[in-house]
Design a protein that fits this description.
The protein has 749 residues and is an alpha/beta fold. It has 2 domains: 402 residues, 3-Layer(aba) Sandwich (Peroxisomal Thiolase, Chain A, domain 1); 327 residues, Peroxisomal Thiolase, Chain A, domain 1, CATH 3.40.47. The protein has 24 helices and 23 strands. Strands 1, 2, 3, 4, 5, 6, 7, 8, 9, 12 and 13 form an 11-stranded mixed β-sheet that branches. The protein has a 10-stranded mixed β-sheet with strand order 16-15-17-18-14-19-23-22-20-21, with helices on both faces.
Length: 749
């Protein structure tokens, strides 16, 4: 039994208000923020939306940000919500180096990319915005406004992103890796995803009506919310009170379809059930469910079935709040978690606006104002690909005396530490080298060109041709490497699928942007949109392998794979899972390569760039494995003294660096390695595989295969004179992204 996780600060901005005071007033008075489009410049004026009632200029003024500062609407909203959360929790800028920041977003800086895409392709205008397209950049801009955090990462699981950020932060506190973590998400409305949802024909031209017989689709919204999660010891030491308790949480994969939910709500059922079991709370103790409730025919029926499966004939009061704000997609999990906390504090049930007629075989939601004392609330957030998460938020009852009143205040989540070795059971790659092979160790393909695409195997044995026909290449590579890695691991299945990707399915994103920019907002392809979301990769792997386990995706620049690895290690150390498939997948089109080069992000100097798909299986025990994972650490903007302190726990004979041909980056690697790892032999791999957003995954694969083989090929040594007596006992993978985010991974033979 572990101590509770306290929520000591919250901040929110959405269509119903800037800050919690305005938000509470709207919820209590049933005032929607959904209305005609005002700020987004689009042809589709027929769709009501929940826009934040400020222009970008007004947000900048509110935040005292200069108009020349490069930023995005997603980041601006994030700053507003984060400011309120930090102030409530009494966290100052001086404290931030000991505080983590985990954010969820999917559109990232798409609001700028869709405006300037043709400039990116054809000229040098607005090229300064290229670097803020990705999800991780938005998280870093949000955080940078307040100071230097201890670590930063970004989750991108579509509409469950913020909820999954909350789960990661809670797990870090449970294991003792952090005392305070700020978690949540931010998402603005863009033409890209407005048109994407329209191409799927799930937008309503009227106000949305979740769980109503006449429901016809969703209204999009935007906003941001962050919660400050804190250990009980930390809050007591700082003298801050809990607004609520995060009692538990669950995440599962529906493993059914890229955009549709299963008829029986399998993923939703599993997520809610896990949350109840981990908190040791019986279903009849739940006082209210904040439903995902989008208003689409498929979602509402599926969620209704999941709830009835779990609660039987005793379904608690339940409502959707998306009629207030619109569906805020990636931010919805944290925005609605704040709504739940307000309901706990003020004793009311949020009303399911616009409901009038019961749907067949569905639930009847709360449709009239009700005052009620609440103790335990389930908050659901379900995303594309069947990524389903449920949070159990409880009133702070730690000072009550009876078991009945304190149930759920201490969770049965295993922890804080499970001491056991972690084994790398298998590792497979598709890249610019021979696919699904280790031939590169003896006969590497050498390239003289600065940009190269992957060498693909035949995908017929991994994916039925009728399904593969509409899949992007990155998806095929991910499925092939995943199936091969699981097969080689000796396991029938894995407990978790955790993926890192810097840009996701960028080829489909490019196709959709190209059509949007040149042909306008009519007749856009739903396939391109469906496959543009980052977690399409992880969800399709789950669908293909019929895996309902934990499933998340990280999208944070050059530490995307590292963040996925961190999550896997964390959950295995907690004892929550015994195995995990960790992936690192990125693709690079000729057009996008030129855009990134223009933005100064890739292909500089003698740097060779490429594509790669890596799938690694970690396990807690095995008779046959590649190597052991001994230690792992991530840091954000560390000083040299901080790096030295960490490096003392990562002693190794060989250091695998990210030297790539980018002179500035290479000099940094060499100087840091000289100071941190004096006497160790330096290795490189990007001259063979190329630079990519998840190239650290290739580095992990290379190190694991070398340890298994018991030798390091001569062509990996930075200094050719050091190749004598090169049988490795361990290899340290030393990675940094933009000189800001570092990871150290120690593997042992």
């Amino acid at each position: 039994m572990t101590k509770p996780i306290l929520i000591t600060g919250t901040g929110v901005v959405s269509a119903i208000g800037c800050g919690k005071e305005q938000t509470l007033d709207a919820l209590l008075n049933n005032r929607t923020g959904v209305g005609p489009l005002v700020y987004l410049k689009t042809e589709h004026k027929e769709f009501p939306v929940g826009e934040v009632k400020m222009s970008d200029y007004e947000m900048r003024k509110y935040l005292n940000i200069n108009n020349d500062t490069i930023t995005t609407r997603t980041a601006l909203m994030g700053m507003i919500a984060l400011d309120e959360a930090l102030k409530e929790a009494k966290i100052t800028s001086e404290m931030l180096p000991n505080v983590g920041f985990i954010s969820g977003t999917t559109v990232g800086g798409m609001d700028m990319s869709e405006q300037f895409y043709l400039d990116y392709v054809n000229n040098d205008n607005h090229k300064e915005y290229i670097a803020v397209h990705d999800c991780g950049s938005c998280s870093e801009m949000t955080a940078k406004h307040f100071g230097k955090f201890a670590f930063i990462t970004t989750l991108s699981t579509a509409c469950s992103s913020a909820a999954n950020a909350i789960i990661l932060g809670a797990n870090m506190i449970r294991r003792g890796e952090a005392d305070i973590v700020v978690v949540g998400g931010s998402e603005c409305i863009t033409k890209f995803h407005l048109n994407g949802f329209n191409s799927l024909m799930i937008l309503d031209t009227q106000w949305c009506r979740p769980f109503d017989a006449t429901r016809a689709g969703l209204n999009l919204g935007e906003g941001a919310a962050y919660l400050v999660l804190e250990s009980e010891e930390s809050a007591k030491k700082r003298g801050v009170k809990a607004q609520a308790i995060l009692s538990s949480y669950g995440n599962a994969c529906d493993a059914f379809h890229q955009t549709a939910s299963s008829p029986d709500g399998e993923g939703a059922f599993r997520a809610m059930k896990e949350a109840l079991e981990l908190a040791d709370i019986q279903p009849d103790k739940i006082d209210y469910i904040n439903a995902h409730g989008t208003g689409t025919p498929n979602n509402d029926l599926s969620e209704s079935q999941a709830v009835k499966r779990l609660f039987g004939d005793n379904v608690p009061p339940m409502s959707s709040t998306k009629q207030f704000t619109g569906h805020t997609t990636s931010a919805s999990g944290s925005i609605e978690a704040v709504f739940c906390i307000l309901a706990l504090q003020n004793g009311f049930l949020p009303v399911n606006l616009n409901w009038s007629q019961p749907m067949d075989d569905g639930i009847v939601p709360v449709h009239q104002a009700v005052k009620k004392e609440l103790k335990h609330i389930l908050c659901n957030a379900f995303g594309f690909g069947g990524n389903d998460s449920s949070l159990l938020i409880s009133k702070d009852m730690r000072h009550e005396t009876t078991r009945h009143e304190t149930e759920g205040q201490e969770s049965h989540v295993t922890g804080p530490e499970v001491s056991r070795p972690l084994f790398v059971l298998s590792a497979k790659q598709i890249s610019v080298q021979q696919p699904l092979s280790e031939d590169w160790m003896t006969q590497p393909i050498e390239y003289q060109t600065p940009f190269n695409r992957s060498i693909d195997p035949s995908f017929k044995e991994y994916i039925p041709p009728i399904e593969a026909r509409r899949m992007g290449k990155i998806l095929k590579r991910a499925i092939a490497t995943s199936k091969e890695a699981i097969k080689a691991s000796g396991l029938e299945s894995v407990d978790a699928i955790i993926t890192g990707t810097g840009y996701g399915c960028i080829e489909n994103t490019e196709f959709f942007l190209e059509s949007l920019s040149k042909e306008g907002e009519q007749m856009l392809s739903p396939t391109y949109f469906m496959q543009s979301t980052h977690n399409t990769i992880s969800s399709l792997v789950a669908i293909q392998t019929k895996n309902h386990g934990y499933n998340v995706t990280y999208a944070h620049k050059g530490i995307s794979f590292d963040s996925a690895l961190q999550d896997a290690v964390l959950q295995m150390r907690l004892g929550k899972i015994n195995s995990a498939l960790v992936g690192g997948h990125d693709e690079l089109t000729p057009t996008f390569y030129q855009i990134l080069k223009k933005g100064g992000m890739m292909g500089l100097d003698d740097e060779m760039c490429g594509e790669s798909a890596v799938s690694v299986v970690l396990g807690s025990k095995s008779d046959n494995y590649l190597c052991k994972l001994v230690n792992f650490k991530m840091l954000h903007k560390p000083t040299m003294e901080q790096l030295k302190a960490v490096a003392a726990d990562f002693k190794a004979d060989h250091i695998l660096t990210g030297i790539s041909g980018n002179h500035k980056s290479d000099v940094a690697y060499l100087e840091e390695c000289k100071e941190l790892f004096s006497g160790a032999k330096l290795l490189k791999y990007k001259h063979l595989f190329g630079e990519s957003f998840t190239s650290s995954g290739i580095g992990f694969y290379v190190a694991a295969q070398c340890l298994k083989a018991g030798r390091i090929p001569a062509h990996l040594f930075v200094n050719p004179q050091e190749t004598i007596d090169n049988k490795p006992s361990n290899i340290l993978i030393f990675n940094h992204s933009d000189g800001d985010n570092y990871s150290l991974t120690l593997l042992e033979a």
